[in-house]
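Example 4.3 (complexes with small molecules)
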Amino acid sequence: MSTYFVRTFGCQMNKHDSERIAGLLEADGMTAARSPEEADVIVFNTCCVRENADERLYGQVASLKAIKTGGRPEVLIAVGGCIGQRDGALLQKQLPHVDVVFGTHNIEALPELLEAARQGRSGVQILDEGHTFASDLPSRREHSWHAWLSITVGCDNFCTYCIVPYVRGRERSRPIEDVVAEAQALVDDGVVEITLLGQNVNSYGRDLYGAPRFADVLRAVATTGVQRIRFATSHPKDLSDDTIRAMAETPEVCNYLHLPVQSGSNRTLAAMNRVYTREHYLDLVSRLRTAIPGLALSTDVIVGFPGETEEDFEDTLDLFKQVGYHQSFTFIYSPREGTPAASLPGAVPRAISQERFDRLIEVVQSSAAAGHRDLLGTTQRILITGHSKRDSSMLTGRTESNKVVHIPATGTSDVEPGKFLDVHIQEAQTWFLLGYPVS
Ligand code: SAH
Ligand code: SF4
Ligand code: F3S
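Answer. The structure with S-adenosyl-L-homocysteine bound is encoded below.
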């Protein structure tokens, strides 16, 4: 029986797509290999949101050339995802030992494309638009207790720095009946936590005659018996009062929100085409915090956007101090060919971007630590996710607010990933908490 290995880069959409790629290959009779070196088919599910993601793919594919030239010429290398979508057949010119190229709209074609390549025909196919949602395809979930569920695909926002709308296509919402049916099937299969996915979940339904909207999806998914609902990503311009109400009123919806701000400067936000101001964002945060007790916030932010001055950056620093994020995904601006920002003047020198990056991280460290200290002495229900990566004598779990908690594994032999446990929080560190089970 032949074997496969999938290497995933990029965001949660890609993680979800990779579960579907694995599901499709298993439905085609293949089994998972432990490493690329042992696999007959190696699939790269790629990302091109920043330049270093591109470079990593080229490096890794090149290093696999040795497998083929070293005595296993029958091994097939497939490249899919966002770089596949962007580069298509060009990829094979640059990396001649790639056999199959597919894109973000035709994951389901992978088994056929592999077969075509085996028979010496072209294994390249890129489509401009998709017809399926990843969640409709067979799946091999990474965890039995957690599932991704895509409610929208694509993006219509065209933030000026971002390649995603060009490689994921126009925004499309999945009918709510299909979303709920999928959620119900997952719960019946033992899933306790569902993460709803879309580049901008808050605009769900805009293309479906204007209703139902995202708040309705939250309420409907909660009726399936799922215990925790998370979602990503929220665009601040589309987060409605009804969504805040649904988050506040629906106990299954976690008190955690990833709300990318990208910049705290109105001038930069306008140049990024984000369509909100820092005042709007701060007001939104204050309404969210009033409605949802204990809400933890995380964000994405870009430093060194073209034309960003020290003053602009200080606005970002100030906003970060006001919000007090629990976590931030901080990026140095990376020009992406074909996006409007790539031709803007005012490139920020790397050393200045790096210095701003470091200053921002310091602020996040201090707010993350403060957020953890707030939980000292409390009892938190955690969902066990596995053994600690650094110390196998510890189990790791997450609070509803998405904070990482480590507890000793001893005496908890009946506790396994996917189970809930009440723990007493004993120690707070910058990036995690330590606790012990409440007996
Ligand atoms: N749809 C999501 C995620 C988009 S990509 C959202 O809107 O939040 C994830 C993050 O990558 C973005 O939020 C942004 O912070 C970052 N990013 C996107 N393009 C980038 C670029 N050209 N340079 C640096 N960071 C970028
Ligand atoms: Fe990119 Fe903006 Fe769409 Fe997010 S909302 S995927 S940052 S264009
Ligand atoms: Fe990357 Fe594509 Fe996601 S470019 S961030 S994998 S949508």
